[in-house]
Amino acid sequence: MEHQVLASSANGVGRLTFNRPEQRNAMSPQMLELFHERLKELDGDREIRCIVIDGCGRKFRGGR
């Protein structure tokens, strides 16, 4: 489950990536919790000036 939301940073840019391409990155309760955790981690980094949110695979996010 830890790999469902990936976080990285480089050159002042943070990146959060939804990583459930087989489910079109549909959000689950666990994934939402991980997203918030990863977002807090990046928010605490004073070097990051912006955060990009993207998804693995062909879809950013699926669902209703």
Describe the structure concisely.
The chain has 64 residues and is an alpha+beta fold. It is built from one helix and three strands.
- Coarse morphology: globular
Number of helices: 1
User: What fraction of residues sit in β-strands?
Assistant: 25-35%
Unreliably modeled segments: none
What's the SSE pattern?
A: EEHE
Instruction: Kindly name the structural category.
Output: alpha+beta
**Distance between the amino and carboxyl termini:** 22 Å
Q: Care to count the β-strands?
A: 3
In what order do the strands lie side by side in the largest sheet?
1-2-3
Helix content, binned percent: 10-25%
Query: How is the biggest beta sheet arranged?
Result: 3 strands, mixed
CA-based gyration radius: 12 Å
* Arithmetic mean pLDDT: 92
Write the layout of secondary structure elements.
Elements: E1 5-10, E2 13-18, H1 29-43, E3 50-55
Parallel strand pairs: 2-3
Antiparallel strand pairs: 1-2
